[in-house]
Description:
Strand order of the largest sheet: 3-4-5-9-8-7-6
Structural class: alpha+beta
Number of helices: 9
Order of helices and strands: HHHEEHEHEEHEEEEHHHEEEEE
Oligomer: single chain
Amino acid sequence: MLTLLKLLKDGNFHSGQTLGRDLGVSRSAVWKQLQQLEAELGLEIHKVRGRGYRLASPLSLLDKDAIEGAGLDSKWTTFIFDSIDSTNAQAMRAIEGGTSLPVLVLAERQLAGRGRRGRKWISPFAENIYYSLVLRVDGGMRQLEGLSLVVGLAVMHTLREVGVAGAGLKWPNDILVGQRKIAGVLLELVGDPADVCHVVVGIGINVNMQAAPEVDQPWTSVRLETRQLVDRNDLVVRLSRQLAHYFSIHLAGGFSALQVEWEHNHLWQGRAATLLAGTNKVEGVILGVDAQGALRLKVGNDVQVFSGGELSLRLRDDS
């Protein structure tokens, strides 16, 4: 079935006879596979008598050879899945299985993609980037201070490289264009937080997605912003290079070496906001972040600092 999809990915018409010849099957078998593609992967296929079949929109499929051939670090072990529960979950399994690190896990789609605070990450087939990188961390959690913000910088610069000039940051883990979300980061820790541990860097980027009625917040994608089909393999390589660059800075100088750059690209700097922590709400003005990546909020006449995975930031209506 996926071999058929590779023949159709260009978005052009292909006759049933030609497809059958290339696949070595009958035209009726081609028809059954087309029905499977629509039913199982949610793809829209146009059928026109006398012209054949084509996808409603071209696809950019992931290709391990293209990614590694473009200069991805040879020390990274790369896995690409057609369909998986989530790339972060598979990354966890790679740790348990003793796979040589770093490990990069990519997928065409996720059946149970996760965002922060247990939210579902919408993951349609072959449209976006679902990316999880596993790193070994020596010296405990202090080595990870501000790391999710550092990853955000790498994602933001990747997006700007491919033409999304308005991409910016929202504390702690979102990348926005204006008020619309285009990417998110989810870090998960495995092991001894005081000694040797592993961190899974999960990244989701809306790439070629043009419609997603099930998403419950304002969103956009690289394709919507640039009006062009994006080569997802190229985007993976660009992202990996940016991550390697920012990881090296973070390793040498900690988050404090990137604090000014992060604040400069924070879209909500100086804005009035509400910080949600469970059922508690804190109203204040966003001053920036500290040297560990924690949020600095002016609350009344005081400056308070907040950090933690269950916090959520919202702009105030009057901001």
